[in-house]
């Protein structure tokens, strides 16, 4: 494992000029071959992939005096092993806890690669999903809708790379093909691994750190992205890891409770935090997006409910529902139409 980059200290003059930007990006940034570690507060790291291994989701790592706590485990055991192999660039402390923010494959399917004997913590619903009590997650629409297209994507990249004549573009395509091929091969290794410690609404841990202890609160404020979303809140640092319950953009809603989600986000807003770390995307410093997303969810529920009441199929409703009135807040909205997996899910809830 090679240490590739550590951020450097700016000159006093540059520091004064760039102070506003530095407030948003303070702390060390360290990279291994496969992972990028950004220190958001002392011993608090947001971790993402560099692209050499398909990781798909963010991870939070909390480093204490004697041990390490990891939140989420990436998309496959191979990605989790790359994470574990990378941890020495920031700490030599052993992993003691793994926390599941929720049960989705891109956050939980690396758990089996973690060392034997660690404690895995998650919501009761997450345990039931991952232990098979509520069905086989590997056969559910969410997992299959993301995973089934991978072989065709690998074949397409292989064809593109073979046909490319520009050496630089060819090299990039070959690397993308390798990463996706490795991911495709890694999917077959997955054995969903449930938490062995569960919470219903709240749990508090205390991690020994220099000069005292770090309070780590785990909160379940209600159903949202899934039935068992857990927020990881650090009150001393005023930081919260939101998983996929709150992202910088629009979250996947195929297993969501869109009607309850805004109220659950109200629970998140009761916490005193300045920084939130999403399950995908960069460190966030503004709460404004949370209100925008609440508005989007309420509007989507209302418009979809009307389509359902009018007897429109979910497939046609997904094509017709127009959410472009939220385009100024969510750049990914470009035209009418919504992810059909979200509308299918809302129809299921309305039918219930």
Describe this structure in words.
By secondary structure, this protein is of the alpha/beta class. It has a domain at 288-352. It is built from eleven helices and 13 strands. The protein has helices at 12-24, 77-86, 105-108, 124-130, 141-147, 150-163, 167-187, 261-269, 288-309, 314-320, 340-351, and strands spanning 29-31, 35-41, 44-49, 59-63, 68-71, 95-99, 119-123, 197-199, 202-209, 212-219, 231-234, 239-243, 275-278. The strands form two sheets. The chain has an eight-stranded mixed beta sheet with strand order 1-2-3-4-5-6-7-8. Strands 9-10-11-12-13 form a five-stranded mixed beta sheet, with no helix packed on it. α6 (150-163) runs antiparallel to α7, α9 packs across α11 and α10 (314-320) packs across α11.
Note the topology.
Elements: H1 12-24, E1 29-31, E2 35-41, E3 44-49, E4 59-63, E5 68-71, H2 77-86, E6 95-99, H3 105-108, E7 119-123, H4 124-130, H5 141-147, H6 150-163, H7 167-187, E8 197-199, E9 202-209, E10 212-219, E11 231-234, E12 239-243, H8 261-269, E13 275-278, H9 288-309, H10 314-320, H11 340-351
Helix pairs in contact: 6-7, 8-9, 9-11, 10-11
Biggest sheet details: 8 strands, mixed
User: Could you tell me the radius of gyration in angstroms?
Assistant: 21 Å
In terms of structural class, how would the helical and strand content be classed?
A: alpha/beta
In angstroms, what separates the terminal alpha carbons? Answer: 51 Å
Spatially, the strands of the biggest sheet line up as 1-2-3-4-5-6-7-8
Continuous helix count: 11
What portion of residues belong to β-strands? Answer: 15-25%
The low-confidence runs, each spanning 5 or more residues with pLDDT under 50, are 1-25
* Gross geometry: globular
Mean pLDDT: 93
